[in-house]
Amino acid sequence: MTTIQLVGAILFACALVHTFSAKLFERLADRYPRHEGLFHLLGEVEAVFGFWAFILIVAMALISGGDAAVEYAESRHFTEPLFVFTVMVIAASRPILDAVDVLLRTVARLAPVRTEVALAWLGLGLVPLAGSLITEPVRDDAGGPDARAPGVPPRHTGVAEVRRPGVLFVNVSIGGTLTSYAAPPVLMVAGTWGWDSAYMLAHFGWRAALAVFINASVVTFLLRPHLKPASGEARESVPLKVSAIHMAFLAAVVLLAHHPVLFLGLFLLFLGFTQAYERHQSPLILKEGLLVGFFLAGLVVLGGMQQWWLQPIVSNLGPTALFFGALALTAITDNAALTYLGSLIAGLSEHARYMLVAGAVAGGGLTVIANAPNPAGAALLRRGFNDESIGTLGLLAGAAGPTLVAALLFLI
User: Fold this and answer.
1) Using 50, 70 and 90 to split pLDDT, how confident is the model at 243?
2) Which one of 50, 58, 279, 281 is least enclosed by Cβ atoms within 10 Å?
3) Residue 342: which of 331, 352, 330 has the closest Cα?
4) The model scores a pTM over 0.90
5) CA 182 to CA 132: how far, in whole Å?
6) Contacts (Cβ under 8 Å, ≥6 apart) of 271
7) For 205, which DSSP code?
8) CA pair distance 206, 209, nearest whole angstrom
9) CA-based end-to-end distance of the chain
10) 77/208 Cα distance (integer angstroms)
11) What residues have CB less than 8 Å from 233, skipping those under 6 apart?
12) Which residues contact 254 (CB under 8 A, 6 or more apart)?
């Protein structure tokens, strides 16, 4: 352990404490209006890790010199933060969300239950599983608008409503395990361990699908008294050609996910297209996307200094202990970071590999930082809660039940 590694671990702990204290800063903003802008910034969960990552770089410059700090920052790979920002903005654009909404409502009307009940179930069940064909951030953007029940008062804080973001985050985390390329924690190990989509479907997919269906069904059943037909002003429909072009942009970005120069170039073309056909657009969620990207970039910078204590923990655990250890650790660090560290361990048995990934994805809904797409979902859903934020303890309590279901099925 070097001095800078110790400092990095301390700052990482500070970031975790800050994450769990985000709602406190929102209250301070109301109490001290002169500094409300600063407190609102510090209360943004998505800004926490970027803020402490900046402090780490400054500390590194003071301890090891400016060149060492710059070299470390440039040695980090920021492809995933850039990709999540890009795909989040495109996926949440009005033409795509309208197309998804039309599809889900069409399917919901054919279901043998009330349309609003079927729509809620589809948003929590089918969308997370269908996202295995693309990527997790797209699933949060598609499922996010349906993750609040139509007709539930915006400040409703009943037990079922608190569980709703939790079940969405858990289902998104485990729903990406049907293929080998959709979920970041799987993507980090699939190439190294030779796991293809057939392997994932046989070992993880059916368990994940069953857990998703159970979680979505239970929460929808609990919420059904509050589910009423959504009322709102009708707006002009988006032409099919515009939606198709947006879908083409999204598909191209997903296909080029490992080539940031190319997908960022496509993103600039996408921005130009939205300006050219502004009448068919709603404001893009650039702020939310940038905050999520900032969060992930901060996690990459801070996480790079944690290998010295994380890897020994992972390598010294047996398969069963590894499962529960990964499930617990993913609540305080990104699950993709855990599986990546596991992929570096030589001689890890096939059973231990399965347990590591299963625990990491099962715990992906426990906190906002547990899974890369969670900040995107939090940004979309937080306006429906008091202080416009999803409480850390409330999310943990809401995700506990769905996490238990996923854990039990992965342990069968």
Assistant:
1) very high
2) 279
3) 352
4) no
5) 5
6) 284
7) I
8) 5
9) 39
10) 29
11) none
12) 87, 134, 135, 138
pLDDT at residue number 61: 97
Instruction: Please list, residue by residue across 215-237, b when 16 or more beta carbons sit within 10 angstroms of its beta carbon and e when fewer do.
Output: bbebbbebbbebbeeeeeeeeee
The dihedral through the CA atoms of 72, 77, 82, 88 has a sign that is negative
pLDDT in tens, 60-110: 999 999 999 999 999 998 987 898 889 889 988 999 988 888 888 899 999
Lowest mean pLDDT across 153-167, 169-183, 187-201: 153-167
Residue 114, number of CB atoms within 10 A of its CB: 14
Cα radius of gyration rounded to whole Å, the chain: 21
Domain boundaries, the chain: 3-75, 81-288+305-411
Q: Environment class of residue 202 by beta-carbon count within 10 Å: exposed (0-12), middle (13-18) or buried (19+)? A: exposed
Q: Express as a percent the part of the chain with pLDDT over 70.
A: 87
Taking CA atoms, 233 is separated from 61, 117, 123, 230, in Å, by 54, 21, 21, 10
Q: Which two tokens stand for residue 303?
A: 């996480």
CA atoms within 13 A on the CB side of 41: 7
